[in-house]
Amino acid sequence: MTTLMKTLWIAVPLALVGCKKTKAPEPTEGSGPVNQGSGAAVAPGSAADPHGTAGSAGSAMGSGSAVTDTGSGSAAAPAGDHLVIKDAGFMTPESVLYDADTDLYLVSNINGAPTVTDDNGFISKVGPDGKVVELKWIDGAKDDVKLDAPKGSAIVGGVLYVADITVVRKFDAKTGKAKGDIKIAGATFLNDIAPADGGGVYVTDTGVDPKFAPNGTDAVYKIGADDKVTTVLKNKDLGSPNGIAAVGNSVWIATFGTGEVYEINAKGEKQPGAKLPTGQLDGILAREGGEWLVSSWGGKTVYSGKPGEWKDLKLDLAAPADIGWDSKRKKLLVPQFQDNAVHVIGL
């Protein structure tokens, strides 16, 4: 990792936010779609760190959910096919997962600093039309829920797995009821999750300490259907693995530190990587035909294609975090980490 990246990561302030029983006021029902003309205005982001504190619990919450149709669209989306969900009560949204069984989007909200065990993280249910169904469906502020800084998630076998700093938390995918935690020994920054063939999930450890300095715990783990944890690969040279996607018995990694995409094969061997035009990569999704979608903080965009054949979707979105995919509608789901917004973009 470059000296510049180390400096940027270390420079991010940490903010202790909230307490177990203090709840922010819930936003009121949204006012409906607003035509915004030629495109959505996006506030510029702050210094790039993998998961900064902008938009934390100290931010002012909007009075209602606004669903914006960007009208003629951006260079990446046709007219009328780009919704922006903002002022909805999201607090540091890190990940969006499409749940095909319920036809809803699940948004992981860190609600503060991504390494602080403040038990105020929450997961929102959002409809494909952009309306918030339940802002705090799973809420760390409740007595029977522990959730600090939720990040990537996946649903396997009726269980919602959520990465949360040093543990992976399990919830019933239908009811949201807590089903226990899986501690990952030695992990410091569990980040993204992907379903594994045969049950269970894979999870990345980005390998940074509370000051966001690289600490060498970079790793990919596999959690079996029996909750047994095995190490797929762990070493300090993995480039701060962030996003993960599983294809067969291999996993593909998008790195925040080195800005590359690489494969770890079934033998746990890292294959040569391919750098993207810009770095600070976050989410990665596999598409048909061997293509990928990869979000980049460095480029404020999402890339589509294959290594060496990347197409910039030219979204101009600050801090595009762990992306999701609505397979029913062919929509790209982009949480905007620092602006407390979620974008739904037709491709």
Q: Give the class-level CATH name.
A: Mainly Beta
How widely separated are the two ends? 33 Å
Fold-level CATH name: Neuraminidase
Whole-number mean pLDDT: 83
User: Could you give a short account of the major beta sheet?
Assistant: 6 strands, mixed
Radius of gyration: 18 Å
Helix content: under 10%
CATH homologous group name: TolB, C-terminal domain
Number of strands: 26
**Which ranges are low-confidence, i.e. pLDDT below 50, for 5 or more consecutive residues?**
1-64, 70-79
β-sheet strand percentage: 35-45%
Q: Give the strand order, joined by hyphens, for the main sheet.
A: 1-2-3-26-25-24
- Named CATH architecture: 6 Propeller
Number of helices: 1
Provide a quick synopsis of the model.
The chain has one helix at residues 3-10, and strands at residues 28-35, 64-69, 82-86, 93-99, 104-109, 122-126, 132-139, 153-156, 159-164, 167-172, 178-183, 190-195, 201-205, 219-223, 229-234, 241-247, 250-255, 260-264, 274-275, 281-286, 292-296, 301-306, 309-312, 324-326, 331-336, 341-346. It has 347 residues and is mainly beta. The protein is globular.
Q: What does this molecule look like?
A:
The structure is a single chain. The longest helix is centred in the N-terminal third of the chain and has 8 residues, at 3-10. The protein has one domain: Neuraminidase, CATH 2.120.10. It has one helix at 3-10, and strands spanning 28-35, 64-69, 82-86, 93-99, 104-109, 122-126, 132-139, 153-156, 159-164, 167-172, 178-183, 190-195, 201-205, 219-223, 229-234, 241-247, 250-255, 260-264, 274-275, 281-286, 292-296, 301-306, 309-312, 324-326, 331-336, 341-346. The strands form six sheets. It has a six-stranded mixed beta sheet, with no helix packed on it. A four-stranded antiparallel beta sheet has the order 4-5-6-7, with no helix packed on it. The protein has a four-stranded antiparallel beta sheet with strand order 8-9-10-11, with no helix packed on it. The protein starts with a helix and ends with a strand. Strand 16 and strand 17 form a beta hairpin. The protein has 347 residues and is mostly beta strands. Residues 1-64 and 70-79 have low confidence and may be disordered.
